[in-house]
């Protein structure tokens, strides 16, 4: 059973260790790497001294993680060649600087542990470039292979364990090895970010405006917010990304779709004039992100970051797709899920063929968000968005219309594109 942390007796905002875990991307998912690579590339392109890209990544290599059986990919000038698979993990490390926010989580018997409760795979296709972000539920029951630990010892292979325990058995490298075994994909790059990192990176861009179709009240994360648009940063952003009880059916799948709303809106903010035209904000984002993530060794060269940024910078919003890895209920435990392999195979086949993806399922498997139609003539002052038609890129430049036929994914695969607008389906109606 998932453990939760009760609301703190003294009224402080607390965080559940397992009950509401799963951060971001965009990036976080996209929150981490796309934020970094776009920032690094654009800082350099904005006329800031060329040494800035190297300077801000000088600390990026300090704690870099080796991935088993992989060597660093030699960088080159220009967009990275071929497809890219980049794994993003969000862990629940209880860092002293942020312990005050997390109540019993940082004072109890589990305070020293660290789990990978956010698991996202960013797939960047070869030409034509498309971006697919696959979120894997933390409660997914799968085999975990034998992994090499930091001290050189190995952990035994296990036939069925929760995905979010992989970090405990062998760190980031073990999480990547586990997901690579599950998906059959070669994952060249990886990075992890902690709770505190999410707080700092979100602060660096002044927050992200999210939409609440209904109010959210969640005593486990301290959220008690009315419906409407809300700019969130810092601890508010972290708690929003982690809330499970406050959205949809209260499960992890609903939380994932809630995070995808955040990532979609974050992607829009990253390419907005508010960020792109402000060199100080770009530099702050880049330096903060670099200071708060742990990369794989293959991701430590600043030129590699720029190459990845160049590969994704002109991808249209409707070709940036966030999907949930398809699952079924675990017949042995109703609180866990197992892979829906037939639906997942359809996704991997579409990605291998580099065909446009057409979503046919719901935006959320757990009812965490609802689709909304933009108000005619309305302008989001906090996150001005460029056109999102198939022939327009995030930077406003024209792109060729796709000529391939779109692949309809099975309805078991939930998700949304960055061109869609969704709102959190909160648990407080009429408020």
Walk me through the structure.
Helix 4 crosses helix 5 (234-242). Helix content is 27%, strand content 21%. A hairpin with a 6-residue loop joins strand 2 (116-124) and strand 3 (131-135). The chain has a 7-stranded mixed sheet with strand order 13-8-1-2-3-14-20, with helices on both faces. Strands 4-7 form a two-stranded antiparallel sheet. With 431 residues, it is an alpha+beta fold. The two termini are 32 Å apart. The longest helix is centred in the middle third of the chain and has 19 residues, at 252-270. Mean pLDDT is 77; it is low at 1-54 and 375-403. The protein has a single domain, classed as LCP protein (Aminopeptidase, 3-Layer(aba) Sandwich). The protein is globular and about 55 Å long.
Write the layout of secondary structure elements.
Blueprint: H1 33-45, H2 51-56, E1 84-91, E2 116-124, E3 131-135, E4 141-144, E5 147-148, E6 154-155, E7 158-162, H3 166-183, E8 189-194, H4 195-204, E9 208-212, E10 216-218, E11 223-225, E12 228-232, H5 234-242, H6 252-270, H7 273-276, H8 279-292, E13 293-295, H9 302-312, E14 320-324, E15 327-330, E16 333-339, H10 341-353, E17 357-358, E18 369-371, E19 407-408, E20 415-417, E21 422-424
Parallel strand pairs: 1-8, 3-14, 17-19
Antiparallel strand pairs: 1-2, 2-3, 4-7, 5-6, 8-13, 9-12, 10-11, 14-20, 15-16, 18-21
Helix pairs in contact: 1-8, 1-9, 4-5, 4-8
